[in-house]
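User: Quick sanity check before I run a bigger batch. Here is a single chain. Can you write out its predicted 3D structure?
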Amino acid sequence: MMFQDRADAAARLADALSTYHGSHPMVLAIPRGAVPMGRIVADRLGGELDVVLVRKLGAPWHAELAVGAVDESGWIYVTPFAEAVGASPAYIEEERNGQLALLRQRRALYTPRRSAYPLGGRTVIVLDDGLATGATMIAALHAARQQQPARLICAVPVAAPDSLALVRGHADEVVCLYAPASFRAVGEHYQAFAQVDDSEVVACLAGDAAAGHPKPARPLRRQRGGTA
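Assistant: Done. Predicted structure follows.
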């Protein structure tokens, strides 16, 4: 399965999540790439959008390989293979502290005039643009679970099968559109996979910033042919 871009993937996810339309779900997007997707899904389902701030802990010799992840509280998830790739406990702690500092900066930038929305008793959908190791999603689900939502859903367009299996134990429901046995990287399943910058994240969140109410749901016009 190939997605045109994140908007196409978000539209397909919204269709798969349509059972939650009208339940005023909270969509928590993992920055930065998933936030524009979260805006689409939240609008389509008549919900609210917020960010769940987590950061992967990169491997010592390959920063893009996640050996774990940390949430805003400082809680960390460490992958089973972390030590095998040279991520010692001391290294993990150093990486954790660095990523926590970045999370504090992002919170101040993304939601400067409010705290994160409360999740207790709500349907919460945690969304990312794909799962590679699953580390950041596990940290995001853990952070959301601490607030005792009524139902916690993980939603992704594409995932590595092994990572999907790991994530299932942390959510009440997992919605994944495609989990190919030959998975290598999230970006390989998008025709266009442009970087998302901080200004786009802030703009996507602006619709819910004033009073905690969602923007009116609107239909999404699917693109036909070509790439964005």
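Residues 209-228 have pLDDT under 50 and may be disordered.

User: Great, the batch can go ahead then.
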